[in-house]
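agent> Task received from the user: take the single chain below, predict its 3D structure, and emit structure tokens. No templates, no multimer pairing.
agent> Plan: (1) validate residues, (2) run structure prediction, (3) serialize to tokens, (4) report one or two observations.
agent> Step 1 OK, no nonstandard residues flagged.
tool_call: predict_structure(input=
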Amino acid sequence: MSQINGHDRKHYLFTSESVSEGHPDKVCDQISDAVVDAFLKVNPEARVACETLATTNRVVVAGEVRGADSITYDTVTQIARDQIKRIGYQQDGFHWEDAAIEVLLHQQSADIAMGVDASGDKDEGAGDQGIMFGFACNETEELMPAPICFAHKMLRLMAEARHAGKEKNLRPDAKSQVTLVYEHGKPVRAASVVVSTQHAAGLTQQDVREIVRPYALKVLPEGWMCDEKNFYVNPTGQFIIGGPDGDAGLTGRKIIVDTYGGAAPHGGGAFSGKDPTKVDRSAAYAARYLAKNVVAAGLADRCTIQVSYAIGVSRPISFYVNAPDCKVDEERLEKVLQELMDLSPRGIRKHLNLNRPIYTRTAAYGHFGRTPEKDGGFSWEKTDLVEELRRHFNVGKVAEPKLATA
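)
tool_result: status=success, residues=406
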């Protein structure tokens, strides 16, 4: 982010936003990914492309599936109710118990299946054409851009406190926005913090402000908090009607929240609701995995990777690495990365072990910058290629950069 419109900037502001698990679009993402997980739990090779719409006390689940006949319409209906309940919606306009759930899933197109399935000498092809990006930078311990990292953490901590009963006046729907001041390409302090959170009736704007304040202070590094006039909490005054009752939600509308907060390109394809044969999802995870390992190995401070595919074709059409301060030859780095990881759809799924029910947890607070989990969740966040990359380029262990962390 140290280059804006192609010019080096010594001083600038950069903003990213996040939304909570109770945001209408995120409710839909979580339902769609819970459907994906249900199918993969029954059959790791199942195919799912699931879209969800939510509005006042109504949810519609539609899309194409294959490979798990035991997952019925009743099963999907219960999955939707379970997700709404887990998130915490039991209000008049959106209640897990009495919302109308409509399921319109049908069998995957035979034309798509023909292009994707492996047969004879033909390897499994990509589930669609498209471009995918991965990014990493050394601004935070998570090797993520600081604005989106802090915006996610703030809402996640608030949600955890709400679920634990520590914040009884908070409700599920919330948004955050963090603007940081950058000096010579590095974040140094917050210029503004914006949080809009749904709350119980009877609270004043100042009441909500004081509920939110400790979470902002906890997330931002010491001394980074903005001044009082730039700390905006519920700027409209109140936020009582929220969730799908206040605004309709759709799967896949928060792709910048899901990725890098605008600090890096996005290919355009959403992740949630798609099984890992869809390269929109799996190749974006692979690109992040490779970019993160490049930065973790100390080969660059920032790394962007683009990969592209054609539907039904197993090998990538292109692979591009952009690391402005790269300490090694970028063309050679491109070659080495493709040697270290098979970027065919099957190769990605095998390397990152993606054919498992690990996706509902990704559908809120970002797909990247998370901690790899014992059951294989967030496997694309591992840095297990670091030593191999250093060996290839004869690079020793580098000094740890000063990271923006609370």
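agent> Step 4: summary for the user.
The longest strand covers residues 170-183.
agent> Done.
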